[in-house]
Amino acid sequence: MEIVRYEFLFEAAQPIAHHSESFGNTAVAMRRKIQLEDGSFVEIPIVTADAMRHALREASSFATLDAAGVLNDIALEEGAMRLLFSGGMLTGKGDASAIKLDAYREMIDVVPALALFGGCAGNRAVPGRLNVDDATLVCEEYAHYLPAWVTAHLATKGRHLDTCRAHIEEVQRVRGDALLDPGKRHLLSPGARANAEDRLLASGEAHESGDEKAAASSKSTMMPRRFERIVQGSLLVWGLEATCYTPLDRDTLDTAAAAFLSMARVGGKKATGHGLLRAVAAQKETLVSYTERTVEACSISFRMGALFRAHVAERKDRLRAFLSTVDA
Amino acid sequence: MEPLHVTARLLTAIALPGGPLALDALLAAAVCRRDDIPPPPPVRPIEIPVEREPGGRFHLATFSLGAAARYDHRWVNRRFPIEIAQTPLGSLRIRRVHISGGPAKSYRIPLETIHLEARRLDWYAVGERREIEELLAISRYIGKRRAVGLGRVERWEVEPCEPWPGFPLVRDGRALRPLPPDWPGLVEPVMEYRTISYPYWDATARVLCAVPEGVC
Q1: Is B147 in contact with A133 (Cβ distance < 8 A)?
Q2: Which residue is closest to A97 within chain B, CA to CA?
Q3: Distance CA B11, CA B152 (A)
Q4: For labelling, which of A197, B91, B130, B150 has a CA lying 20 to 30 Å from the CA of B103?
Q5: How far apart are CA B34 and CA B49, in angstroms?
Q6: Residue A230: is it exposed, middle or buried by C-beta count within 10 angstroms (0-12/13-18/19+)?
């Protein structure tokens, strides 16, 4: 057995819009409390470990289907979809008094990533062996929690830390109302165009007369909304570690990391230029026992594991059969 | 075997919805991880390097002793991967997904987390120091929701310590782990039905015990 820990330093190649909740029409960035050296608490921006772990799970599931050569010709049922992309669920089907270890072994044999990520199928929960940390903003408040290698890396690059507040910006976007554009109103049917123009007239009159009720009922559908985001160029530190028993476990972990890092996107608003992360440095720690541990700077260009690909490709038909029948 | 003081220095908040953490359970879980023992129920007894009480019912190890400096909360979310089901990867037989009930139900459950005073938890035990260190070295996250970074341990410290009368299970008349009500040294103990040894999730093994107080 060995515990493999990877730590990454990410740069936000795009702003990151990862929100916890919204007040009115303003979405606030996800934060968590940390304790400062003087004992006081502050909240600093993060990308939650749940989001990072989910992104890893998704990447590793795509890598599994790709390695089996079925990515383009498989149609997953609901249970398989849940198992691969959400970790499945206990369906309550099956005899709960009997734990089928052979079924468990079969499952992690055809989908090796399940051994690391865990999941639920039938009457049992498969515990995972992968612990993922929050991706945390590298800022002044977090300085005393930074791994030593990250501090050294920042010093080498001459990068100074700023407060977490400096790394957050608030921006506004507006969903337009197409009916306010005269050119687009010409695309309407005559009846719809007349209705739209009547509404615009009514809106103007209501505002002039101060009739709030009429103004509300005739207002445009234009919707401004504001949101906080982590600014582009900010750094985030992130760690993950897995308990590995076999070379296949290690290769599966590397494959998941490689698949995720190849296009690491987190948070919301991905379709509008948000969420892209770029790994700029990494470190690997391997712990075999209390006294045996190695730490090394590691390449950020992970490769898809040859062992993982061969293992999954060899079980292509069993994987297809498993996914077509799994109850998760 | 010697009297030991065990300390976990934590880097993050910790989730302890079930109350304080049992050192013997942590060590048993570490043995399972080390030996790749499949998930419960265990197929063989799990032995740990901690002395048992004379009757052999449980180990001479306390539950965690810590204090909360601040509480926080987070949410445990799950949703069906609708965006992927809409791609060609999803079977055309998936025509409707119920997200308000049934197997694809979405949820958002609150979870309380605790920031500890001095970011530490302590335990006392009578055991083999080296073996305990070996096992704790692989216990890198403790408490609930370890998979998403809660309860990350920066380092473990296992040091010999001076025992006190009643060491390690009773201090100042208070139980430091679930104990039989007639355990010597207890003074007006708080009584509850608890499992007296690991696995502590086994509710069928609950008996009336004198229990420790506190949330962490």
Answers
A1: no
A2: B41
A3: 6
A4: B150
A5: 14
A6: buried
Report residues of chain B scoring pLDDT below 70: 39-43
Under an 8 A CB cutoff, do B152 and A133 touch?
yes
d(Cα B1, Cα B132) in Å, to the nearest integer?
11
Residue B191 CA to residue B173 CA, distance in Å, equals 13
B103, B115, B147 ranked by CB distance to A33: nearest: B115
**Peptide bond between residue B103 and the one before it cis (omega within 30 degrees of 0):** no
Which residue is associated with the tokens 């165009």? A193
Q: Around Cβ A90, how many Cβ atoms within 10 Å?
A: 16
Q: To the nearest whole angstrom, how far is the Cα of A200 from the nearest Cα of chain B? A: 37
What is the per-residue pLDDT for B39? 67
Among residues A123, A104, A3, A241, the alpha carbon closest in space to that of B33 is found at A3
The sign of the torsion formed by the CA atoms of B160, B166, B170, B176 equals positive
| Strand, coil or helix: A219 | coil
Please report the number of interchain residue pairs, chain A to chain B, with beta-carbon separation below 8 angstroms. 121
- H or E, element range at B174: strand B174-175
Q: Report ipTM (2 d.p.).
A: 0.87
Tell whether B129 lies on the interface with A, counting CB pairs under 8 A. no
For A23-57, the pLDDT digits (tens) are 999 999 999 999 999 989 999 999 999 999 999 99
Nearest to A241 among B33, B119, B140 (CB): B140
- pLDDT in the model for residue B12: 95
> Quick one: DSSP state of residue B61?
B
The pLDDT value given to residue B43 = 61
Cα–Cα separations (whole angstroms), residue B40 to A3, A16, A228: 21, 40, 44
pLDDT at position A298 is 79
pLDDT at residue B216 in the model: 80
What was the pLDDT predicted at A97?
Answer: 56
Q: What domains can be seen in chain B, in order of their start residue?
A: 2-70+113-165 (3.30.70), 72-110 (no CATH)
Contact A59, A117 (CB under 8 A): no
DSSP string, B65-134: B--EEEEEEEEEEE---HHHHTSTTB-TT-----SSSSTT--EEEEEEEEEEGGGEEEEEEEE-HHHHHH
pLDDT digits (tens, 9 = 90+) for B120-134: 999 999 999 999 999
Cα–Cα dist A184/A77, whole Å: 42
Positive/negative CA dihedral, A137, A139, A143, A148: positive
Smallest Cβ–Cβ distance between B77 and the set A35, A50, A81 belongs to: A50
Q: What is the DSSP letter of B147?
A: G
The residues, ordered by sequence, that sit 6+ positions from A259 with a Cβ below 8 Å of its Cβ are A59, A60, A62, A63, A304
Amino acid making up residue B87: T
Residue B169 to chain A, least CA–CA distance (Å): 27
pLDDT in tens, A281-296: 999 999 987 778 888 8
Q: Under a CB-based contact definition with an 8 Å cutoff, are residues B216 and B14 in contact?
A: yes
Please report, for residues A99, A101, B37, B195, B204, the alpha-carbon distance to residue B43 in angstroms, rounded to integers and kept in the order given. 11, 11, 8, 20, 18
What is the Cα B73 distance to its own chain's centre? Answer: 19
